[in-house]
């Protein structure tokens, strides 16, 4: 009997952390607490050898590649988050993603909700420029009791 290939088994933890560092620290590593760029590389996170730790020389706080991100403080490995995001991009349901990743539907729902919120918060702000048209407008005819408005 042959076993099925699971997508998370072919995703490399090291490459996931390298991509996170590339995206997060594109202008250089800085302290997420005080924004100082004066820091020391301080080994690796206890649970993952590819997750770099740093110590800020300004505020003396420690942080790592996932500090203050949606991935911080969760028990799923980063590669599971990355594969989950990929599967969401394929427009799979939470049930399908949970089955593919071997997660409970509750865990999968929590992960996809956090990922969607993170994507929504990072979307570029819409800027209206030039001539703008709209279909309906509701204008308050008067300000009864508030004459100065």
Could you characterize what this model shows?
It is a single chain. The chain is α+β, with helices and mostly antiparallel strands and 149 residues long. The protein has helices at residues 13-24, 78-89, 94-101, 105-122, and strands at 39-44, 52-56, 62-64. Strand 2 and strand 3 form a beta hairpin. 34% of the residues lie in helices and 9% in strands. The mean pLDDT is 86. The chain is extended. The longest helix has 18 residues, at 105-122. Among the domains are: 27-68, no CATH class; 70-122, Arc Repressor Mutant, subunit A, CATH 1.10.10. The chain contains 4 helices and 3 strands, in the order H-E-E-E-H-H-H. 17% of the residues are buried. Helix 2 crosses helix 4 and helix 3 crosses helix 4 (105-122). It has a 3-stranded antiparallel β-sheet, with no helix packed on it.
